[in-house]
Specification:
By secondary structure, the chain is mainly α. The chain is built from three helices and two strands. A two-stranded antiparallel ribbon has the order 1-2. The longest helix has 22 residues, at about 60-84. It starts with 6 loop residues before the first strand and ends with a helix.
Amino acid sequence: KFDPTQIRHASIWKTSVCPLAKKIRYELRQRHFSGDFICVYSIENTAPKQIASEFNGTFAPLTASFGQHLAALVLNHALKDEVG
């Protein structure tokens, strides 16, 4: 993954494209989990294998963008609770 503009957040059940989210949904179904939670994921398609093997999947600085996105979600949630 290379593009931080492709980062999204949604219910784990409504994610798309992300192979990790797909695996998590599968495991949750296997355990009969019926709850819900928000997750941060990318809608960017995975790189072709020759590029992915060179870069090992995800551009390292992009992981910070995921953390910033998640931090913004937490802060917005906390501010909504405080205001009303």
